């Protein structure tokens, strides 16, 4: 079982084991909502994901995007886009074992910060 949650542990979730892809998103909305240069998302089929503690607060961040975060510590734990409702995106940084899911690619590279360079060495 893959597990994770928010910083204060009010929100906890579990994901059925699987070989899920993760991807770096450089879109401006992820950057601003997470206050981070970019966000690495684990893409999980919705039926594999469930909350095991707490109920997240909801932010409608765009016409298609809804983001879920902890009301107590502000940590974001999920994003759902109505353009692909069969999956839920989970920030790899909220996983208990983020090392397991290195990103295999990136999206919204056109808005990537010019000073961002991954060190693959
Ligand atoms: Zn929290
Ligand atoms: Zn994004």
* CATH hierarchy: architecture: Beta Complex
Characterize the largest beta sheet: strand count, sense, and whether it forms a barrel.
4 strands, mixed
Strand-pairing-aware structural class: mainly beta
Helix-strand sequence? EEEHEEEEEEE
Gyration radius, in Å: 14 Å
Count of DSSP strands: 10
What distance separates the N and C termini? 30 Å
Per-chain topology:
Layout: E1 2-5, E2 12-15, E3 22-25, H1 28-34, E4 39-45, E5 49-53, E6 57-60, E7 65-69, E8 76-81, E9 87-91, E10 106-107
This protein binds zinc ion (2 copies).
Task: Give a quick rundown of the structure.
By secondary structure, the chain is mainly beta.
List its salient traits:
38% strand, binds zinc ion, single chain, four-stranded mixed beta sheet, globular, 121 residues, 1 helix, Metal Binding Protein, Guanine Nucleotide Exchange Factor, Chain A, mainly beta, three-stranded antiparallel beta sheet
How would you describe what is shown here?
It is a single chain. The chain is mainly β. It has one helix and ten strands; from the N terminus they run βββαβββββββ. The radius of gyration is 14 Å and the shape is globular. The termini are far apart. The protein binds zinc ion (2 copies). Residues 25, 27, 29-30, 108 line the site of one zinc ion.
């Amino acid at each position: 079982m893959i597990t994770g949650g928010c910083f204060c542990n009010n929100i906890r979730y579990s994901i059925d084991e699987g070989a899920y892809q993760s991807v770096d998103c450089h879109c401006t909305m992820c950057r601003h909502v997470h206050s981070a240069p970019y966000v690495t998302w684990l893409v999980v089929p919705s039926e594999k994901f469930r909350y095991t503690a707490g109920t997240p607060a909801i932010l409608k961040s765009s016409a298609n995007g809804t983001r879920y975060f902890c009301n107590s510590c502000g940590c974001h734990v999920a994003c759902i886009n109505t353009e692909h409702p069969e999956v839920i995106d989970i920030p790899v940084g909220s996983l208990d074992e983020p090392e397991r899911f290195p990103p295999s690619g990136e999206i919204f590279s056109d808005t990537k910060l010019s000073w961002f360079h991954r060190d693959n060495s």
